[in-house]
Amino acid sequence: MKTLLTLLLTIPLLAAAQIRPITMLDQIKAELPIGLALRKGKHWQPQAVALANATLKETVIGRPVAMTLKFNRIDAPGNTSRGPAIVGHVEGPFMQVNGIRVELRIHVYFESTQLNRLASFSGRQDLRFHGKIARADFSDNGGVLNLDFVEARAGEPDPPEPPATRSVAEAAMPAGPFAARVRILSAIYGSGGRTVDVTARVREHVEVKRQMFSVTPESLGADPAPGQQKNVTIKYLKDGKSREQHRTHTENILWEGFYAPQDAEELSTWLLTVKWKGPQGEEFTFGKDGRLRSKTYYPAWRAVAQNKIFLDWGGGTAFEAHFDWKWSSFTEQGGMRNKFTRID
Question: How many angstroms separate the CA atoms of 277 and 294, rounded?
């Protein structure tokens, strides 16, 4: 089941050098990855609100925008909580998020130099502006979405959109099962009540350097309980879905384990996108109908775990196959017979 909270409000989440034109509020989209139960009666779970806000803080704050809003009013220049500015107010509309009514509270802080451009504003009028997102969070148990834009300028033409580019991190991302978006949210290391936050160190291992690390003080950069065996709990988002790993004392952790399929459902989805080669060099694919497709055989298949599939060849021949740690091949359980290799 998808766990993407798709808002009816669309905020353009743009790279620092990009500004794409957006014309109406109803066309703006923002996807918040929420992996927890969103509702508890008529309210959100507190954990869901906290996760939504943490995600917005990591992905939205500071991003440039170019958009058109229908302003209710624009105040005269004055000193505001964000310094001297002309404040534009957008009240409502309400929207439904997973069956819960959410109110929009939007404030646009125009630069003081924009006074002449805004002089003709008459109220409840569409106005296009460029600015930067300074606040994006939910309050009132998820009942209100607060959006603040700063350094706003009105009436300027949109710059040409640059060609789509990949970040250095994305360009370095291997193909295959590791081409996923991963964000480490938290990593707590320790024993009992003696713990320490090692999120930055784990994020460096997984997202930046993509290297193996271990559950040791040397690898995690801290020792909250000297002389004791310690564990680490890592919470993260993979393609917008909340995930969690618990690892024990001195255990080695592969960065690939965060990007690869996390369960049977993800493995099933990924297998549909990849070509394979059988023991005799024959090529085949995994079909949506639950059968392998090749020129020579059509066994039934199903994923049973994040790194295991079950193949039924008919006539009483069936076996479970396990993938290697790179998901580059899978082999019949119990030996190296019937090895199948991924075609990159």
Answer: 10
**CA angle (196 as vertex; 193, 200 as ends), nearest 5:** 155
Sign of CA dihedral 248, 254, 259, 261: negative
Paired with 191 in beta bridges are 194
On whether the CB atoms of residues 69 and 108 are closer than 8 A, the answer is yes
Q: Which residues pair with 342 in a beta bridge?
A: 276
Amino acid in the structure at residue 220 = L
- pTM attached to this predicted model: 0.49
Closest Cα to residue 14, out of 54, 58, 59? Answer: 59
Give how far Cα 298 sits from Cα of 135, 290, 311, Å. 54, 10, 10
For tokens 């998020």, what's the residue?
A: 97
Contact 211, 219 (CB under 8 A): no
pLDDT per residue as tens digits for the range 217-241: 999 999 999 999 999 999 999 988 8
Residue with tokens 């509702």: 39
Q: Taking residues 160-182, what's their average pLDDT?
A: 53
Q: Do strands 31-33 and 4-6 pair parallel, antiparallel, or not at all (unpaired)? A: antiparallel
Alpha carbons 84 and 43: distance in angstroms, whole number: 37
CA 315 to chain centre: 44
Nearest to 33 by CA among 14, 11, 51: 51
CA proximity to 144, closest of 176, 108, 101: 101
